[in-house]
Amino acid sequence: MNHHDRGLKTKAHLIAKSLLPENQETPIHFLEEKITPRSLTFRRNHFPYPKFPIQPFFLTITGSVKNPLIFHYSQITSMPSQTITALLECSGNKRAHFEPKVFGDQWKEGALSQGNWKGVPLSYLLSLTEVNTGAREIVFLGDDSGVKDGQHVHFQRSLPLEKALDQHVIVAWEHNQKPLSPKHGFPFRLIVPGWYGMASVKWLKTIHVINHSFSGPFQTDDYVYYPHKSEDKDSFPVTTNRVNSIIQHPLDRQILKPGKHEITGLAWTGEGVITSVEISVDNGVTWKAASLHNPTQKYQWVKWSISHVFEKNHESTVKVRAFDSTGQSQPDQAFWNRKGYGHNQVSQIKVQIEN
Description:
The chain is mainly β. The protein has helices at residues 3-11, 73-77, 122-129, 161-164, 217-220, and strands at 15-18, 23-25, 58-63, 69-72, 82-89, 112-121, 137-148, 151-160, 170-175, 178-179, 189-191, 204-210, 224-225, 236-237, 244-249, 254-256, 259-268, 274-280, 288-289, 291-292, 302-310, 314-324, 347-353.
């Protein structure tokens, strides 16, 4: 990275999408490193930030368990831990690109960040409480709350027991080698790699084991794919990240000098790993394989690039599509849904070449 690029990076800042509650996206075009700095990690909130009491912090596990337990902050942080490098992507990422338009925060590409998360495996905590045989789901209650549909509610989400016991699901207390910041979930945050960010509940207070399906509003109303504009049939829950990509350079509508330019970006997926990325500079008529730069690792984005010589006095539509090891690829057209989740159609920009 040259001196000029470093200057760009230091000037980057979050891009506001709403202020109350605070929702800000990452300036994704300027991120060259594997880990997103804490100051540039996107912020997604449903309610105002919790007000923290001046007292010790606890995590409670209750419900369908043999041994309900309350853990003090210092107990959690002294347990066997693991560190996971994982991206988090809001399920509303790229919502601004849906046609027809949908309501909600109009995220572009930046509801996406990648971090190092250190915590205790959820499966370890559940082993201490001994989950009952009939248990089906684990409910996670955050300390953030507010009014939704006329009711005062906390943000709550559940995971099926099988997913909750995945070795990579952790209760994190550190983000990028420091205690979680108050804006990203202090004191505890669930991290569910491979699932959209709504599953990674912030300000985690209570873990509740249940023998039935959870039906809170952020489970059965929000974070559901509704394929029809005015009816709820054929709906299904938002879970795993869809295979996706972005172009970081050049920027959309940029004017370039004729000659060789590097086209660069990121690609990622929920399950499996990225296996290939293809680029078209002629609006999808022909495609070429891009180079993948870092080893493709589960739950992490991969950087890709390709060089192309642009001819003068020409407009070019550049497209990118990613493929993963589960057989998924980006569709030519996004799966439209009423709340605007999971947008992952083939990414594109237009550039103009000077005379």
